[in-house]
Amino acid sequence: MQIEQLSWRSAGGWRTERGALDGDADLVLAFGARALLDAARHAELAARYPRARLLGCTTAGEVCGDAVEDDCIVATAVRFAHSRVALARVELATAGDSAAAGRTLAAQLPAAGLVHVFVLADGLQTNGTELLAGLTGALPAGVAVTGGLAGDGTAFAETGVLADAPPASGVVAALGLYGERLAVGYGSLGGWDSFGPDRVVTRAEGNVLYELDGQPALDLYKRYLGEFADGLPASGLLFPLALQTPGQGGNGLVRTMLAVDETQGSMSFAGGIPTGAHVRLMKANFERLVEGAEGAARSSRERLGEAPAELAVLISCVGRKLVLQQRIDEEIEGVRDVLGPQPVFCGFYSYGEISPFTPTARCELHNQTMTITTLAER
């Protein structure tokens, strides 16, 4: 495959970062700040790459090469030598439509020759757990799903997904990847430490948590956060929940708060919180966050076999960005150390990450992880 990468900033417009495709691309991945990724930028990309499928979303930070950027757009154009793509798109009316949206996306993607699905979804209106249940349940056996939920910095006001149309809220899009010579790797790891006692979810509906151990969940959460409670929901990114469901075994999931309801004492999350699950609060461990990024890279590389990665799509959580702050590039550098100098890096900081933990595990919605999807043609 051949790859061209561009960036756009208010001060200078589009700039070529690497490569040259002369407008001939099969796919363009575009990730950018909500204030910048708009209809005008979509039109410019569509004109520059007239036959390409365009897919992207708003972010909480952009990956451009080995750097993490803010307030820009990064567009990565790919021309495949032996592979092809298809794009499906649906609009959500409510988060309760997420499972149906997943089934619709799967139905829109031709099943013959499907190797992998990469999905992007509105970060505030999607129940990622239900979306994946609908999508994976309708896809051919053995087809994995990776991707992420769009971001909006720490504002949590509005997110958008671009799918052969200007970015819009409520959109979920799935990219089908096809070809016998296409290798896809993936991995997802965190690096957070649990603290405090185990709590049982005694009341929850979908992705809304009402009670822990019979107490209002928000009140209990605030007691642990102390001075950070005044900054909710954004400060909740620093203290996610470790979630373990009955009979799950192995790796638990991590859930990050997206919104609070003071009247009901509830918290909304990007994915489902089942009644009866056990949860514990988590806090950051800087070194383990970087190690988690490196571990995700190793998993994605191993699945490629002998084929060296040519493109790596990195989706990391906004909560990790807030913790790492000025050292945020270190998790990207850790991935580079594992994958080597060849692959082009793109991606974004998200409100949720989508991947199996391992090649043999089922696909899950994660929070606070680094999730990596690597592509190579053999």
Automatic annotation (TrEMBL):
Domain FIST: 24-216
InterPro entries according to UniProt: FIST_C (IPR019494), FIST_domain_N (IPR013702)
Any Pfam family: FIST_C
Superkingdom of origin: Bacteria
SMART domains for this protein: FIST, FIST_C
Domain FIST C-domain: from-to ranges: 217-357
Record's protein name: FIST C-terminal domain-containing protein
Species annotation: Thauera sedimentorum
